[in-house]
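Supplementary Data S3. Sequence and structure tokens for construct A.
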Amino acid sequence: MSGANALCRSCGASVLWCLTPAGKLMPVNSDPVEGGNLNVRLGTTKDAHGRFIPVVEVKTGGGFVSHFATCKDAPDWRKR
């Protein structure tokens, strides 16, 4: 996905940085899975550098999963 691919700084997994409906950035695992609860739409908004940022929506069926749900180091990144 153009401009949004990155690696998790903790575990090294491939993630997409996506914009939530609340306007916050959220890391999402870059590969869809059966039972994933997020839909990723590409090209709906641009960041300050002109790159397209995917937008996430809650959905049912196969889709994407928040990286916070699978990263072994997720507790270290949570805001207190």
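Construct B, processed identically:
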Amino acid sequence: MKIEISKKFKKDTASLSSEAQKKIFVLLSNIEAAEDMTGFDVTKMVGYSNYYRIRMGIYRLGYKLEQDGSLKFERVAKRDEIYKIYP
């Protein structure tokens, strides 16, 4: 699966602990190798047609499903903060 990463996602990830960064890197690698999103804790964002989030412990990764089928990861934040800043 093709993935893209936004500048804000990179900035958000850089502010996390090195352990969380490693987990995110592994998760993104697994998503890139997967054929579809089954097996990942994905939930559609209410009120938006192309926006989703993936649960990873206390963090949530927000991504957008693009027209060409690729995933654009846009934000990462703690559970209580992600819904305020994304989408």
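The first strand starts at residue 3 and ends at 5. The chain has a mean pLDDT of 96.
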